[in-house]
Structure formats: C-alpha cells, structure tokens
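Write out a sequence, fold above all:
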Amino acid sequence: MDLLRTVQLTALMREAMASARDIDTAVTAGPGFRWAFTGPIEIADFGGLDTWQRVFDNIAPDLD
C-alpha cells in the first residue's frame, strides 16, 4: 500500500500538480495519525530517495 501511494504521489510531483511540501502538508493535516508530523515524501527521504528511485526503476514496468 505504501509503495502504491508513493507511486501516485511522485506522479503528482513529476506532473507539477503538487510539490513535496504540498503533499506532505495535505497528508499530515488529513488522513491519519501516522503522518501527523511527518509526511510520506519526508519519510521516503529518510530511507534515501536514491533507494526509492532504484526500487521504482525495477518495479515500475510491472505497475503500468
């Protein structure tokens, strides 16, 4: 679930529909206690955005 959400959120950023800050603000102010202080993009950055990029590069063809 986290991966699919992150795919959708990165698409919003890639298409310039929302910034990382906008997404994190929307999520932390909205859907859950889990993200009350840290948004999903910031959490992904903790793990290393380069790591996320390698994961996406490997599985993205299977998600289309």
User: Anything to note?
Assistant: Residues 49-63 form the longest helix (15 residues). The mean pLDDT is 82. The helical segments are 2-14, 20-28, 40-47, 49-63. Residues 19 and 56 are 19 Å apart (CA to CA).
